[in-house]
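Hey everyone, long-time lurker, first post.

I ran two proteins through the pipeline my lab uses and got sequence/structure pairs for each. Pasting them in order. The first:
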Amino acid sequence: MLCTKSEAGIAVYEGKIFIIGGYSWDRNEFSKSVECYLPEDDRWEKVADLPEPCTGVGCSVLRLPQCVTSNCDHAHPERAVANSVT
């Protein structure tokens, strides 16, 4: 990690490890940074800052069916009724 932390959120996405927030013992403060470990390069990089520092973060990665993430009638049954021809 770029900065030693505890109580951070951790998630793995597309083979990369993300560390979100936490408490920085190096700086004695709550962290708002998001860091990513790139295994192919064996290095850490800063991805972004959160709007506010946070600690005790819980993280998860969900894979949603494509129809839930796009405009389809399965995700919005009322559209199927509205768009049907009678």
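...and the second, right after it:
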Amino acid sequence: MKTLKERYEDSARVAQAWITKRTGFKLEKKLIKDDWLRQTYGDLMNKYQEKGYISKVDPTTSVEQEGFLPLSPVVRNDRETTKGDRVKGILNSDEILQAENYHIKRAQGESFEEDIKRLYRGKAVRSNSVLSTMLPKIDEDGLLRMTGRLSLIEVLPYHVRYPISLPRKHDVTRLVVKQYHEKGNHAVGTNHSLSLISEKFWIIHGREEVREYERNCVVGKRNSVKPATQVMAPLPKQRVRTSLRAFSKVAVDYGEPFFTVQGKRKMRAKRYLC
């Protein structure tokens, strides 16, 4: 049971986080509209960072352990965010999906920009592109998906038949791998994680991406470390004090005869055990 002081401190931290988020969201809207303000603000932040007053936030830091969305606001519909009709409370599933699609499209646009432009113009991707063998297409949400051998199986979900393509060595891709790796409590293997990821995403060179994350995961290394070899203790003095010659004490014990068969012969041979 928390004390009154601890509950007050928790409430204060939650309130401060909410105020910071709202302030940052309003500032971001102003920076998008004003180029001069965005340049001035960027120069000021760089100076503060050089002096050590602030530190840059890691873009691979997710909001929650269950999700892979980076630290970013979710923009709601302007019609619903007016003062007279403002939506309050936690984000719903549609808004979370909207934010997820936003970051996936950003990652795809940074890595497959030329191929996406060609697909929008109705042309095929470049022959030397990593997507050339995957028959990519653009869905109604603007996401780049690959066409596999399961595309005609209508009983499967759409995201299984047409998984979302993700680039190699991207922050969003690492967050996706991190989510599925942590769902398995850092104990599942590469094939298992890759199988779960492939139900919704298709990562370019996905096996190498998963293995790279597993090599850098501290918790996973701790769980998969090999036990140390124990050093054997020396023999006691009672066993090595007096040396005995070889065969100084010998005994022979005979057992009952055993009948054996060699090969395909029917004749049985009598043998003794000693």
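Reply from user beta_strand_b:
Welcome! Quick read of the second one: The beta strands are 137-138, 144-145, 164-166, 201-203, 258-260, 269-271. The CA atoms of residues 125 and 212 lie 28 Å apart.
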